[in-house]
């Protein structure tokens, strides 16, 4: 009973943290503003680029996931883990790495010039798509590969015994599993790309490549039009919330395949052509994802010792924000993950623009304190809400599985209240909690959102300080700051994730 009260209270607090700031922004604006043609153009572009990003990520992920499923080689599991690095990579760091490889002065442009071809134009729609595919291709690969691994091993064995060729195998086995896995993967990436801000801010190519989130930033920063920003935020909230609700329902559908639980074995004959194709795809994807990260490491390692004190001061701010926001995120995520309504509530903070959320919190603070003095506090709250859906999604299924396996036994032993959590749930939830905390810390460490609007030079976070260095064309210092940010983000993720793995069942 007490746990249910805590869960409902957490849902109420999260709802209030989203609804009250939004109401404050509307109150200051005096109501809903009329959107112009440019605003609806930004909305159409946002949907278009999100759909294209999700489509391209899924299209490229299919052959990569298929190759990783069909081939077994030493280091395969380590490679699959490494391919997930871009998803937790700070956005501003990844963009600097992408520019080093695919930018106008990047490695690929230099090679093209040597053979007489024009340089790559990375700004605009093509740059946004490049960055979104870079971030989300690993996620699509993992989701589709998980679909392959959930197919019972007996089905692959039977297909091999029947002598099915590649086309028949695709029609009978692989096609149906892709039909199940692709919609969920597409919607996950689509929702993430709808609210993208830092990518559009740094790689957008003008009015034709303006997303809703960037339009909200411009309305706040340059036009001082709070009503327009709030109205855009509501449009985005409704659309993202609708897409996320579909996703939650779709992903929550249980699988119907039943097997004997045997480990999957590749029964099809391995020809040289198939092996060359599969390893070629794996090598291409690995190069696409790892080259930008490698360029950051090689270009930044020589600049670490010459970084200005402002960078290390900003790094301290980012560490503080990451740790506090992670604690808030997990404190909300655990109770919200225990019931379905709570899982839906966790989407509110992600669906609402963090710029509007932060502005609303500032307006609420303004009568009582200087909002700029509390910029980092507001950033902590905003980052916690942004990471909440990912944490709830990681903890929720594990909680449901524990109930399915042990709830009746716990009831028979009259294990209830804190004792139930202490002896049943927490030991078995340490792994997803550790992963969620690491993900929340890494995402918060690399966030470039509300802090862009309100931070002064003395309270900048590391991503903001790095963005300022890039804007001032101090690319050497920016490379060193990027490497520092990369190391801190991955280090926080590793520490929290390993802490969870050392618990029960690790």
Written description of the protein model:
With 506 residues, the protein is mostly helical. Helix content is 76%, strand content 0%. It has two domains: 1-30 and 301-506, MetI-like (MetI-like fold, Orthogonal Bundle); 38-252 and 263-291, Orthogonal Bundle (MetI-like fold), CATH 1.10.3720. Helix 2 (37-70) packs across helix 13 (272-300) and helix 9 packs antiparallel against helix 12. The two termini are 30 Å apart.
Features:
MetI-like fold; mainly alpha; 506 residues
How are the SSEs ordered, and which strands pair?
Elements: H1 2-29, H2 37-70, H3 76-83, H4 85-88, H5 91-102, H6 107-114, H7 125-149, H8 153-161, H9 166-194, H10 198-203, H11 212-221, H12 226-251, H13 272-300, H14 309-336, H15 340-345, H16 347-351, H17 354-365, H18 375-412, H19 417-445, H20 451-454, H21 462-471, H22 475-501
Helix pairs in contact: 1-12, 1-14, 1-17, 2-7, 2-9, 2-13, 5-7, 5-13, 7-9, 9-12, 11-12, 13-22, 14-18, 14-19, 14-21, 17-18, 18-19, 19-22, 21-22
